[in-house]
Backbone:
């Protein structure tokens, strides 16, 4: 019986890809394990192997095709003695019930209403978050020979999420270092190197794995300055993907924003846009203190305009107002901004004007900007993906109670991820995360609409 | 106590060979199907296939008795099938459905079975090793005769907690077999690039734990080594290390571009060392089975796997209320 070969999903986040090359031709016999074609995803070019034995009866999608949707029929495999014409209709891919990953986050459409303080005539370049992080690290490594990058798969593999692509080539193996899988060990080692005056950048493949190393981050990196009466310095950056990706389950989806934001001696940033990734990463590398950079895998491939300014930095500890408004203040950071901005767009259509603040830095936190905004709007909704207990939003609420109590016209609502370990099932995962709809209904609730 | 390399084979009957053939083939076909379902978007997130390593779990499970426990990493489908878990329940967990072993909440990396004493499915590299020793601790505490198997990879062998565990396991003579599945790579990093010494089975020497290197592509060698290790543990002599030399044919997970090794390298292992072909040849050359006999087995296994896939797709997603269940156990 003929078998349809379908465009495969080759990563947790892939929805379409390019069919760059066919390595087999019509009439060729293939067996399980033979490479049939090369497929380009947003992360890499991958070889696609045959699972079944048979003869390539027809190539449906020619090589060089771009944007081929996952599950589209790309070729038909037939058995000996069969011909493609025997196959009346290619067996529909629709025979497969897809519970397939709908994008967990919707595309942000929100225009940046408020520009940052940039010199007149600044031009912008569309840059992915992935490129912005790589550019920031590379620029700083060119500037300062004491900066180096270490972590699992950062060098030869070019980064598990392709963040350090090309860096081994440029800086060599002395400065771009593959470590064994031994987080507690290499984190402590990097802290020692920082005490000795170097400026390490430690990549955790994801922050979930930094739980193996958290003692060195907190007890050694964060506290030593104080314990030494100001003698010791620990200029180090800890960075990597944080929070939920797509269906990777409870152990790989933890958001650590509040964990690190709680610790004196650390600085913590959690950017949303590529320009902030770039500017904050550069500031983090230059900072004489340990800085935790919480990145997000779902944002790595997203493009934003990044100012074409030489040596572009963003100060740690300053929030950014993305959108001005009068009716309500929405405070978020990291991927939460996605929902905040999308909600603000929709609310604008309904005549509700939301001011959207991106905290960017969680420690130190620019609560001043939030308080000022709430004094104007008198209402506030906070949005984050982490757990609701002892959350960043909870801290914002407490601050508003103390500093803007008389200005509040409604209780502050804190939106967060649900108070459960992240489930794997597609429908439950969706439910566990914050949604744009929740932001909209919360805003309506605090504005009594 | 010197660690020694042995490649001894046991005397095997036709029935035993056929059993090995069936069990290894089930894992292989199951994994191929899982790869296919991933490509179709039915399975999400991470999915790590066990193809190439089948002989290890099949050989070791052949000596176990009721009550022995096992724990491993995220590359866990083979372990579950080999200890007798139902292919339908495993596949339905891969698709995130209510019929899965974790009711859809765990996924490929996180499945468990109280009944089969399978304790996961751990996504954190190395974390299963002390837990495996803890299972052995419970055996010793209760004074039963059971042994626990803690499986981990060559990459995991560099985690500090492995050595903390070795020390305690030896100090307290815990009945634990540490099975290092050395498939030569940790993601894109070869053993040589990550380990100061390549012979992982010798790393227990400093703690007084005997170790042995085994051809992990030869199910008979695995079985023989496992029997010896089990005897050692059941006799109350403490832990044992088995380093299984093996190879993973597929990428680390589904999204691995695999630029760190050549296609020829993979092909050579497939052609020369494949654990299933090896037993197949023994069955045919020993005149135990005919091509037709084996074809009939292949067909039956294909059917089992197809049924598992059908079940995994037909089983419904969990009810939304499931989001809020299973967070805490109720006090009895
Ligand atoms: C503590 C921790 N660090 C990093 C990772 C990411 N990671 C997952 S698997 C893997 C490689 C492990 O290789 P190995 O132990 O050889 O097992 P194999 O995958 O070859 O079975 C890495 C680095 C993780 N899951 N947990
Ligand atoms: Mg390995």
Residues:
């Amino acid at each position: 019986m003929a078998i349809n070969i379908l465009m495969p999903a080759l990563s947790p986040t892939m929805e379409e890809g390019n069919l760059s090359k066919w390595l087999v031709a019509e009439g060729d016999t293939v067996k399980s394990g033979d490479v049939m074609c090369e497929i380009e995803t947003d992360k890499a070019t991958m070889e696609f192997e045959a699972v079944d034995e048979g003869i390539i009866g027809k190539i449906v999608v020619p090589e060089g095709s771009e944007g081929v949707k996952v599950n589209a029929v790309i070729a038909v495999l037939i058995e000996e003695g069969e011909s493609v014409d025997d196959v009346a209709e290619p067996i529909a891919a629709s025979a497969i019930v897809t519970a397939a990953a709908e994008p967990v986050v919707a595309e942000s459409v929100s225009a940046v209403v408020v520009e940052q303080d940039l010199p007149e005539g600044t031009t912008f370049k569309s840059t992915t978050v992935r490129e912005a992080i790589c550019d920031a690290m590379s620029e700083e490594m060119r500037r300062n020979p004491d900066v180096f990058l270490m972590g699992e798969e950062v060098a030869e593999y070019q980064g598990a999420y392709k963040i350090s692509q090309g860096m081994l080539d440029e800086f060599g193996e002395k400065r771009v270092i593959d470590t064994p899988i031994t987080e507690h060990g290499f984190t402590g080692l990097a802290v020692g190197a920082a005490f000795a005056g170097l400026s390490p950048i430690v990549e955790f493949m994801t922050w979930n794995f930094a739980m193996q190393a958290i003692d060195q981050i907190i007890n050694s990196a964060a506290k030593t300055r104080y314990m030494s009466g100001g003698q010791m310095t620990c200029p180090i950056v800890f960075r990597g993907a944080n929070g939920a990706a797509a269906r990777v389950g409870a152990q790989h989806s933890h958001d650590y924003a509040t964990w690190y934001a709680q610790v004196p001696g650390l600085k913590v940033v959690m950017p949303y846009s590529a320009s902030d990734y770039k500017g904050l990463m550069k500031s983090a590398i230059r900072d004489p203190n340990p800085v935790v950079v919480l990145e997000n895998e779902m944002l790595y491939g997203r493009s934003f305009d990044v100012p074409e300014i030489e040596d572009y930095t963003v100060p740690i500890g300053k929030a950014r107002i993305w959108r001005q408004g009068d009716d309500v203040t929405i405070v978020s950071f990291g991927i939460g901004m996605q929902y905040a901005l999308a909600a603000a767009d929709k609310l604008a259509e309904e005549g509700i004007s939301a001011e959207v603040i991106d905290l960017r830095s969680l420690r130190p936190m620019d609560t001043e900007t939030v308080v000022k905004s709430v004094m104007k709007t008198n209402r506030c909704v906070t949005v984050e993906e982490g757990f609701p207990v002892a959350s960043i939003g909870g801290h914002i609420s407490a601050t508003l109670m103390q500093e803007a109590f008389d200005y509040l016209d409604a209780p502050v609502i804190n939106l967060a991820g649900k108070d459960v370990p992240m489930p794997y099932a597609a429908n439950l995962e969706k439910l566990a995360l914050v949604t744009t709809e929740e932001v909209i209904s919360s805003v309506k609730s605090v504005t009594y609409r | 106590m010197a660690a020694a390399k042995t490649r001894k084979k046991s005397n095997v009957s036709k029935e035993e060979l056929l059993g090995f053939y069936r069990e290894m083939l089930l894992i292989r076909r199951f994994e191929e199907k899982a790869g296919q379902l991933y490509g179709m978007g039915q399975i999400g997130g991470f999915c790590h296939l066990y193809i190439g390593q089948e002989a290890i779990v099949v050989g070791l499970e052949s000596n176990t008795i009721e009550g022995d426990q096992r724990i491993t990493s995220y590359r866990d489908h083979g372990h579950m099938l080999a200890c007798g878990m139902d292919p339908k329940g495993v596949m339905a967990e891969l698709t995130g459905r209510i019929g899965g072993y974790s009711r859809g909440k765990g996924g490929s990396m996180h499945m468990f079975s109280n009944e089969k004493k399978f304790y996961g499915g751990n996504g954190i590299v190395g974390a299963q090793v002390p837990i495996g020793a803890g299972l052995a601790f419970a055996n010793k505490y209760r004074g039963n005769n059971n042994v626990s198997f803690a499986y981990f990879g060559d990459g995991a062998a560099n985690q500090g907690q492995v050595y903390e565990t070795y020390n305690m396991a030896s100090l307290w003579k815990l009945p634990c077999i540490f099975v290092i599945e050395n498939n030569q790579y940790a993601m894109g990093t070869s053993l040589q690039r990550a380990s100061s010494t390549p012979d992982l089975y010798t790393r227990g020497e400093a703690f007084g734990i005997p170790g042995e290197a085994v051809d992990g592509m030869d199910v008979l060698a695995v079985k023989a080594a496992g029997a010896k290790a089990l005897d050692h543990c059941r006799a109350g002599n403490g832990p044992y290390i088995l380093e299984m030399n093996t190879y993973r044919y597929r990428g680390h997970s589904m999204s691995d571009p695999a630029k760190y090794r050549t296609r020829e390298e993979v092909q050579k292992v497939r052609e020369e060392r494949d654990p299933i072909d090896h037993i197949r040849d023994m069955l045919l050359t020993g005149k135990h089975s005919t091509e037709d006999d084996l074809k009939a087995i292949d067909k039956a296994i294909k059917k089992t796997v197809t049924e598992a896939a059908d079940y995994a797709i037909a089983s419904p997603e969990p009810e939304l209320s499931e989001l809020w269940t299973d967070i805490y156990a109720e006090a009895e």
In short: Chain B has one domain: 14-315. Confidence is low (pLDDT under 50) at residues 1-10 of chain B. Residues A 152, 181, 183, 205, 209, 212; B 73, 75, 123-125, 153-156, 181, 183, 185-187, 252 surround thiamine diphosphate (ligand 1) (CB under 6 Å). Chain B touches chain A through 58 residues (CB under 8 Å).
